Each structure stands twice: as structure tokens, then as C-alpha cells.
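Task: sequence design from structure.
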């Protein structure tokens, strides 16, 4: 493909003058880089990727420089971290209750525990997919309680000491060493 040396417009084959600016075609210029190419990925893709591996990608997007400045990406990164923590705690509590039920019923509750655990895991997975979809559509969907915590954390400046202190504890020693 050929481009106009004066304005950077794309030229057709056999043209002697640029159709956009009228300059004579003598030299071919390189394509003009767009702002999107130099900025990296868009904020909706970064918000989606913040959910992919939970606390790992959430923390990564809170540490990567161009994205940690964007409130949209920060919100989804924090919500991803908080969602994974809450899901883990709820799943652990459910397993504890079901283990007690299994003990009380002398093992007969194992069948119910398997079904309930599977349904709960499916529900958590569907919520995760929904959050991915909403982030990709540039929507700031807030989960109850978790979303308000994420929104308040995302509104803080990225260099706030309490944000950095929180991130140091998210992935235990790994994020602590990085920070």
C-alpha cells in the first residue's frame, strides 16, 4: 500500500496526485501511527483481562503504569480481587457447613453436598462470566458490597499508600516483593 508523503492518506495504484490533499505523488510515506496503537489495549479489554486470573491479573493491572491511572480498569481490577476473595471465603464456609451436615447424617449428606457444591461452583462461574461480559461492554457493573468496596478503592489515587499496602498482601510474598 502507498501513502501520501504530505498527509499520510492511502493512495490507489496508478494515482499521480493524492485524492485527499492534492499533493503530487512522488514519495511514499510510512503510515501515520494512530493514538490507539501507541496507547496499548483499550480500557474495556484491560477491564476484561483483570478478571481472567482473579487476584493475579487484578494486581497486575493495578501495577502496570498506563492502566493503573484509569479508574475504569482500577475498578474492575479491585472488583476482581474482592470477588475472588469473597468467593473463596463463601466456598470454604459452604464446604464447612456441608461437612458438618455430612457428619451429622453419617455420610448420607455427601450426595447433597456434591450437588450443592456443584451448583454453587456453577453460580460463581456464571457470575464471573457476567463480570467479564460487562467489563468488555465498558459497563461498570457493581456487585453488592464488593462493588462498593471496589469503587471506593478505585477512586483513591493510584499512589495512595493504603492501596499499595493492600496490594502487598493480595498475593502474599510475591506482590510484597514487587512493591
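Answer:
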Amino acid at each position: 500500500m502507498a501513502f501520501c508523503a504530505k498527509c499520510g492518506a492511502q493512495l490507489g495504484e496508478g494515482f499521480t496526485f493524492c485524492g485527499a490533499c492534492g499533493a503530487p505523488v512522488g514519495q511514499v510515506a510510512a503510515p501515520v501511527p494512530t493514538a490507539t496503537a501507541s496507547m496499548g489495549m483499550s480500557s474495556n479489554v484491560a477491564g476484561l483481562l483483570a478478571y481472567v486470573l482473579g487476584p493475579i491479573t487484578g494486581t497486575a493491572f493495578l501495577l502496570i503504569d498506563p492502566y493503573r491511572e484509569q479508574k475504569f480498569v482500577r475498578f474492575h481490577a479491585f472488583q476482581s480481587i474482592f470477588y475472588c476473595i469473597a468467593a473463596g471465603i463463601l466456598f470454604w464456609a459452604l464446604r464447612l457447613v456441608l461437612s458438618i451436615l455430612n457428619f451429622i447424617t453419617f455420610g448420607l449428606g455427601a450426595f447433597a453436598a456434591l450437588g450443592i457444591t456443584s451448583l454453587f461452583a456453577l453460580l460463581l462461574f456464571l457470575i464471573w462470566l457476567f463480570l467479564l461480559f460487562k467489563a468488555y461492554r465498558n459497563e461498570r457493573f457493581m456487585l453488592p458490597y464488593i462493588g462498593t468496596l471496589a469503587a471506593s478503592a478505585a477512586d483513591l489515587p493510584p499512589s495512595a499508600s493504603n492501596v499499595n499496602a493492600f496490594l502487598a498482601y493480595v498475593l502474599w510474598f510475591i506482590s510484597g516483593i514487587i512493591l
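The chain has two domains: 1-29, 42-178.
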